[in-house]
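Hello,

Our lab assistant flagged a job as stuck in the queue for most of the afternoon. It eventually completed. Since we weren't sure the result was trustworthy after the delay, we are filing this so someone can double-check. Below is the sequence as submitted and the structure that was eventually returned. Let us know if re-running is recommended.
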Amino acid sequence: MKPILRLWRRHRILTSAFVLAMALALFFAGRTIFFVVYWSDPARQDLPPEPWMTIGYVAHSWHVPVEKLAGELDLPPPPKDGPRPSLERLARERGQSFEAFKSQIEASLEELRRQDPSR
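-- returned structure --
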């Protein structure tokens, strides 16, 4: 414990920077592990579209590029930052029922899978 206290007394800024860097590294490592475990779960694969989902969530679940799925549905690519609209909201904005929009999404997913069967 003494070497740590001595290091803290002599190099407070460097010690603080090191602790901060370690905390950030642990945070991002934990976040990465969480996402790998979450999306590796077979229960999260090929989920049918639900009203609360976003285009990105559906694309990730089906292992298709979100830009291609959005293009198939004549939607602009979802924003990288900021809120992403739910499928229910997108259907409402298009003047469709969710069920009609869902059938379009499913047809687009099948078409994208047919184009690239390795996914």
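-- support follow-up --
The delay was a queue issue, not a problem with the job. The result is valid. The radius of gyration is 22 Å. The first helix runs from residue 2 to 10.
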